[in-house]
Amino acid sequence: MPRIPSVRGRLKDIPVPGRKKVLLAAPRGYCAGVDRAVIAVEKALDHYGAPVYVRKQIVHNIHVVTELEKRGAIFVEEVDEVPEGAHVVFSAHGVSPAVVNSAAERGLHAIDATCPLVTKVHREAVRFARDDYEILLIGHEGHEEVEGTAGEAPDHVTLVNSPDDVPNIEVSDPDKVVWLSQTTLSVDETMETVRRLRERFPNLQDPPSDDICYATQNRQVAIKKVAQGADLVIVVGSANSSNSVRLVEVALEYGAKAAYRVDYSTEVKQEWLEGVETVGVTSGASVPEGLVQEVLLELADAGFGEVEEVKTAEEDLMFSLPKELRKDLQGNRDARAIGGRNRAAASA
Prior knowledge:
This protein is α/β, with parallel strands linked by helices. It has 10 helices and 12 strands. Helix 7 (214-227) runs parallel beside helix 8 (242-253).
């Protein structure tokens, strides 16, 4: 989808009985894993020149992908589309061992930009499979992260798409069952799935630590608070971003009268604002802050110039870049090797 630049004056200021304002959720936008993955592609292009190939979308955001394509990144579905000997980056969502082996067989120079929190879930799957546990993986069928995690232990994993799947789950030994989850799910729905699983399998074991990532949880907590006072919630994020889609659902569940997801500010419709006094705004974990600021500018044209930040957490987690990219072109340690770009704008 090509980007349509923000158009000032497109939205009109129609009077309402009360005072118009925006509740801006914080934290929002880029998480540490997304930041790391995007910088990995940027630095690979700096180091090796275009083209650099990326298996799947590096993160689930159409704007990020489009901007990287302009710089020379080529996105492919599978590694067999990559010319032998070329550089390929694995996306933040992770890959299965079969994909790693396929890349090696083709002589590709692979750079693994998997989010470390996803890698943690992979390691848990390997560990529990080694101990002969049956793994109930809560996640969405077809999502790259689920495919990567399941690929670590395909003979031990059963996918659980939703709480409604639970009655149909069968295990060979109910005393050796553990649940893991996709990192970008709704916290509430995941816990409901676990509750129902435990009713069927009382000895169900929990993972050693929470699988749903800190950023997903933080953004859901923030939008829950915002939604309580919002007539309308706008979530900036792409349709294939699980965490962005969940934010819309959570906003509706926690009191927003209406909630919509947009990729760009130009998708905000005038009719959404009719009779609205308070608009909640947030963004998914793979969304650049600039896209949120464009939404705020257009909302200001419609009379929503007052912005009140609703902050529920501080985020300072940083991840090291993949080892191949921790030095600059002169061989010196890169200032972005740990910590990536400055994300202060997204949490300020």
